[in-house]
Amino acid sequence: MPQINESLLRQVRGDAERYWTRVQQVSDARVLGVEINTRVGFPTILREIRGFAQALEQVGYRLARSSENIIPELAELAGRHGHDLSWFFDVPYPENRQFQYRNWEEINLALPNLATRILTLTHQAEVHYWHLRHEREPESVAIKRRLDASRRRLLRIAKKATLVD
Questions:
Q1: In this predicted structure, what is the pLDDT of residue 154?
Q2: pTM beyond 0.70, yes or no
Q3: Does residue 144 share a domain with residue 83?
Q4: What is the residue range of 20's domain?
Q5: DSSP 163
Q6: DSSP 8-state symbol, 89
Q7: 64 with 115, same domain?
Q8: Based on the domain organization, do 79 and 150 belong to the same domain?
Q9: What pLDDT, in 10s, does the model give residues 81-102?
Q10: Number of domains, the chain
């Protein structure tokens, strides 16, 4: 293991601490600004990204249900006001695509594929993080356990993660 220059290490850590303090101050000062919690580490940030990716999937599901229901809901509303839209359901695809299937690709392909890629990349980044930690602290059993667990998760994902088409 190469010799560590303690003075340089303290300088780097001090610089990083000053930077993160400034980011936290700027973030805290903004009204309705995006919260940046500078006190969390890399694994926590990855968990938050995964949570947002899963939330993105849920938004896609809700948009899909909304998109499926808009035409029947519009027809029902028109019917309550004396208008008949039954002719619309007789318009063949692809002529009605701009209305009936307006956001189909984005909802059913783009959003799920983006979420899958984000989740996969966060697991890949986690493996790299624990590899770097293990290189710096090869005797740490706790770090080795986390590395092994993250490797197993990424292998499971590599075997089953699929893009929709």
A1: 94
A2: yes
A3: yes
A4: 1-39
A5: -
A6: G
A7: yes
A8: yes
A9: 999 988 888 888 888 877 777 8
A10: 2
Same domain, 17 and 56: no
Percent of the chain with pLDDT over 90: 50
Structural tokens at position 103 = 């956001």
Nearest to 41 by CA among 116, 148, 135, 143: 143
Distance CA 58, CA 66 (A): 12
The tokens for 12 are: 């780097």
**What is the distance in angstroms between the CA of the first residue and the CA of the last residue of the chain?**
48
Assess whether 102 and 86 both reside in one domain.
yes
Residues 61 and 129 reside in one and the same domain: yes
Q: Write b or e for each residue in 142-158: b if 16 or more Cβ atoms lie within 10 A of its Cβ, otherwise e.
A: ebeebbeebeeebeeee
Are residue 133 and residue 154 in the same domain, yes or no? Answer: yes
Q: Express each pLDDT in 18-67 by its tens digit.
A: 998 998 888 888 787 778 888 888 999 999 999 999 999 999 999 988 88
- Measured on CA atoms in the order 72, 74, 78, 80, is the torsion positive or negative? positive
| Domain shared by 30 and 67, yes or no | no
How far apart, in whole angstroms, are the C-alpha atoms of residue 105 and residue 23? Answer: 38
